[in-house]
Amino acid sequence: MRSESTFISNLLRQSLTCSTPVGMGLLIAVFACVLCSTPAQSSDRDAALWSALRSGGHIALLRHAVAPGTGDPPEFRLGDCQTQRNLSAQGRAQAARIGELFRAHGIQSAQVFSSQWCRCLETARLLGLGPVEERPFLNSFFNDYAQRQPQTTKLREWLNKQPLREPIVLVTHQVNMTALTGVYPGSGELVIVRRAETGELVVVGTIETD
User: Fold this and answer.
1) pLDDT tens digits for 138-171?
2) Least CB-packed of 50, 105, 179, 199 within 10 Å?
3) Residues 6+ apart with CB under 8 A from 205
């Protein structure tokens, strides 16, 4: 997974290893640009990401909404929500707001796929963007990291087969999103990914929903 903003981190590393005034000046300039970023600029970036998602060829990865805690209880059973960590009232309200964000940016419906965990399925349904289909390769491997590589490979292979003519939303977990994109998302955060002609997946940006 390659990020289109990695040049910034590379630039910073080069500047830090340079002892000349030019190198330090470049470092200061980069930080000044970051500090001067305004809400309007952030809004413009978000608008560009929503536009990209509408245009086809892009995927929205969504970490499930707020579900207090970490991992799942020892008695976890798939299909039994009472044994799982679930959305709070705040999380359910957040999921509904995320669906409203999609509609406010011109996406009335989408193909929605979800992990089989209850907190993901509930998030996906509360979006109100269409029927929700379960995909086991979106399931959390937080308690079984041996599944990290095989599940991520299955996800990549599946994405390469999708036509991407309409928006696709994948509701999943932090570990899955980080394995695929290198991004560590917050609850309810969107990571927008572009599929290049080569099949490579490129992170184009993230959208915080809270």
Assistant:
1) 999 999 999 999 999 999 999 999 999 999 999 9
2) 199
3) 5, 45, 46, 48, 49, 191, 192
**CB-CB contact of 54 with 106 (8 Å):** yes
How many degrees, rounded to 5, is the angle at CA 92 between CA 88 and CA 98?
A: 135
Closest by Cα among 150, 100, 105 to 129: 100
Partners of 191 in beta bridges? 61, 206
Q: Find the length of the chain.
A: 210
Q: For residue 66, what are its two tokens?
A: 């707020």
Helices within the chain (DSSP H only)? 6-16, 21-35, 39-54, 89-104, 118-127, 148-161, 174-181
User: What does the angle CA 75 – CA 81 – CA 84 come to, to the nearest 5 degrees?
Assistant: 45
Rounded distance between C-alpha atoms, residue 41 and residue 30, angstroms = 16
